[in-house]
Amino acid sequence: MNAPFQSEHFTLHVLAEGVYAAIASEMEAGSSNAGLIDLGDQTLVFDAFENPQAAEDLLTACLQLTGRKPAVVIISHFHPDHWAGLQVFAGSAILATHATRQEMIPIAEEMREEKQEPSELENDLRETEANLAAETDSVKRHQLQVSIARQRHTLEALPTLEPTLPNQTFDGKIVFHGTRRSAELVVTGKGHTGSDCILNLPQDRVTFIGDIGFFQSQPFMANCSPSEWIAILEDMATWDMEIFVPGHGPLGSKADLTLEVRFIQTLEDLVRQAVQDGCSVAEVLGKTLPPPFDAWQADRPHRFETNVRSSFKRHSD
Ligand SMILES: [Zn+2]
Predict the structure, then answer these.
(1) 144 alpha carbon to ligand 1 midpoint, in Å?
(2) Which of 68, 198, 212, 250 is most deeply packed, by most CB within 10 A?
């Protein structure tokens, strides 16, 4: 089936009539996935990408496919790869949990400072480019190329960047009653971050789970609460849902939730045991995860290092 809208930044998948998942293209300006939901008499957007360049395309898709701007834009959690494009949706209600908005405030301030003084970001880019020129390992070269693409998109957006915060906060649950379908916005609490929320479409058996879901790659665990995250994923796997739209990676099913649980457990077990045995962080970083996660580890060594270091800190405290 042809995509109903073309963008270099994402591939738009039709999950049901009026329900779209925007799956980010590697190396482009999205960096995370988003959703577009036509409730019949109003439109919802779920997450707003890392840059306005990608969010602009989502707004255009929204206008073309639903005939209107979104009434509500939902931000799943505070990581800026999900909301730095928000300025495009100024004028809509922008919703996040109270805790998420609080975490966004200093990040928005940092963005304003970078806009005033971009030299640090420019230096970072030059450094990454120099690292790429000196790197011969193909996996590491690819990682550096992805980093360079992200840094360039951010710098490109900076002169016109208007860091935008949610203008409404909520806690608990909101149900949007549309003429065509309903959508349930649910706070899942601690998990991937200190406060995550998801959007369920019960009639379509589709759920947008933000970064509760990283499919077919290592989740980013630096701000997580592993046991709560696992509990959420295990609970979701019992729901009457068919399609899970993750924050990163392709569309998934319950099997992807289960695999993600296994990854988090495997990494946590590895680090917990190492701390008990008196190992150093460097020793843990030298270990290899069992299959199939060895491939995930090899694919993103930098993510593995971040995850091990944060897990090590949790288990050492
Ligand atoms: Zn995240």
Answers:
(1) 20
(2) 212
